[in-house]
């Protein structure tokens, strides 16, 4: 079974399996998807892939790769043609391929169960047979994968926000101030109702986007982008408010709410709906 790190390329698994030298090893194989250190402007990526016979020779690096160094397989966007999105192709690289190496494990604010490293390619020879799609289709593949990736990231935010509301509700019930539980305070009740409303609105946005994607509707890209934008902002705000409701305890690592706040912050950065569509 294949397990995706980041989930960006779930839509391409069918073609990916065909490219893997040993697709059925009977154990989980982890995949990292690698765009480039170009970041938001994905179409400007620099990693080069020069054709030499039956191989591409790759040179370049990819910052911030989820699962980098731990994953078995790297799905790499690289430049086989001229500038712009049409010069980009998609190649599969197995861990252990000479010329593939990794940077140090990054120290992150959150998402600490997910190792993040740079992926470095130095004269890395990859068989032409490991290409997904045709030359020049890489950008299209990456953008298609982004739709599912956005739903994935938005759903992670939703889970963190839901859990944070539960924690805040429980804390307000047990913490007494001014002679009674904080849960009796009408201001905090209004706040909790507001958080719950935003949570449900986020959930509905994600479900609408998932349906649009499943039905392959034309508006799927817009729905996925809107769901990701709305949900990651709203859910981070919910986690942050839940932390606030814990007072000083919310700032202690003994209380789980701080982790939800830290983990959900990165969801606003990943799969950037504003900028990754450019090109
Ligand atoms: C923990 C973590 C895991 C990651 N995992 C992966 C992975 O597995 N694979 C992968 O390929 N990438 C991964 N990334 C990279 C991630 O996709 C990028 O960080 C993200 O796309 C933003 O790019 P950047 O960091 O270069 O920011 P920049 O592009 O430098 O942007 C900085 C800021 O400027 C804004 N900005 C940029 N251009 C514009 C514009 N034209 N108009 C308005 N605002 C703009 C951005 O929105 C952002 O707020 C990961 C990042 C992190 C932090």
Automatic annotation (TrEMBL):
InterPro entries (UniProt xref)? Acyl-CoA_Oxase/DH_mid-dom, Acyl-CoA_Oxase/DH_mid-dom_sf, AcylCo_DH-like_C, AcylCo_DH/oxidase_C, AcylCoA_DH/oxidase_NM_dom_sf, Mito_Isobutyryl-CoADH
Cofactor(s) for this protein?
FAD
Q: Name one GO biological process term.
A: branched-chain amino acid catabolic process
Gene Ontology cellular-component terms for this entry are: mitochondrion
- The keyword Flavoprotein is assigned to this record: yes
EC assignment: 1.3.8.5
Pathway entry: Amino-acid degradation; L-valine degradation
Residues annotated as domain Acyl-CoA oxidase/dehydrogenase middle:
38-124
Listed under catalytic activity are: 2-methylpropanoyl-CoA + oxidized [electron-transfer flavoprotein] + H(+) = 2-methylpropenoyl-CoA + reduced [electron-transfer flavoprotein]; propanoyl-CoA + oxidized [electron-transfer flavoprotein] + H(+) = acryloyl-CoA + reduced [electron-transfer flavoprotein]; (2S)-2-methylbutanoyl-CoA + oxidized [electron-transfer flavoprotein] + H(+) = (2E)-2-methylbut-2-enoyl-CoA + reduced [electron-transfer flavoprotein]
Q: Does the keyword Oxidoreductase apply?
A: yes
Entry-linked Pfam families: Acyl-CoA_dh_1, Acyl-CoA_dh_M
Q: Which UniProt keywords apply?
A: Branched-chain amino acid catabolism, FAD, Flavoprotein, Oxidoreductase
Annotated family = Belongs to the acyl-CoA dehydrogenase family.
Function summary: Isobutyryl-CoA dehydrogenase which catalyzes the conversion of 2-methylpropanoyl-CoA to (2E)-2-methylpropenoyl-CoA in the valine catabolic pathway. To a lesser extent, also able to catalyze the oxidation of (2S)-2-methylbutanoyl-CoA.
Protein name per its UniProtKB record: Isobutyryl-CoA dehydrogenase, mitochondrial
Q: Which organism is it from?
A: Sarcophilus harrisii (Tasmanian devil)
Its lineage opens with: Eukaryota, Metazoa, Chordata, Craniata, Vertebrata
Corresponding gene? Answer: ACAD8
């Amino acid at each position: 079974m294949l397990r995706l790190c980041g989930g960006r390329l779930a839509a391409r698994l069918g073609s990916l399996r065909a490219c893997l030298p040993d697709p059925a090893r009977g154990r989980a194989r982890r995949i990292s998807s690698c765009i480039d250190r170009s970041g938001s402007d994905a179409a400007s990526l620099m990693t080069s892939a020069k054709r030499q016979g039956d191989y591409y020779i790759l040179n370049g690096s990819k910052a911030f790769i989820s699962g980098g160094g731990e994953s078995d397989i790297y799905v790499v966007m690289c430049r086989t043609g001229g500038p712009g999105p049409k010069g980009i192709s998609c190649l599969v690289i197995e861990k252990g391929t000479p010329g593939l190496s990794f940077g140090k494990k990054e120290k992150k604010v959150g998402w600490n169960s997910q190792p993040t490293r740079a992926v470095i390619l130095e004269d890395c020879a990859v068989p032409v047979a490991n290409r997904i799609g045709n030359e020049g289709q890489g950008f299209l593949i990456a953008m298609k994968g982004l739709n599912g990736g956005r739903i994935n990231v938005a759903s992670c935010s939703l889970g963190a926000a839901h859990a944070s509301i539960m924690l805040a509700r429980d804390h307000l019930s047990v913490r007494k101030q001014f002679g009674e539980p904080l849960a009796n305070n009408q201001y905090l009740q209004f706040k909790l109702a507001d958080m719950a409303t935003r949570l449900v609105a986020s959930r509905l946005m994600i479900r609408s986007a998932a349906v649009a994607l499943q039905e392959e509707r034309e508006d799927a890209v817009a729905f996925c982008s809107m769901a990701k934008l709305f949900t990651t902002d709203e859910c981070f705000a919910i986690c942050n408010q839940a932390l606030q409701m814990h007072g000083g305890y919310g700032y202690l690592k003994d209380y789980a709410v701080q982790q939800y706040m830290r983990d959900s912050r990165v969801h606003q950065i990943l799969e950037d709906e504003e900028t990754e569509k450019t090109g």
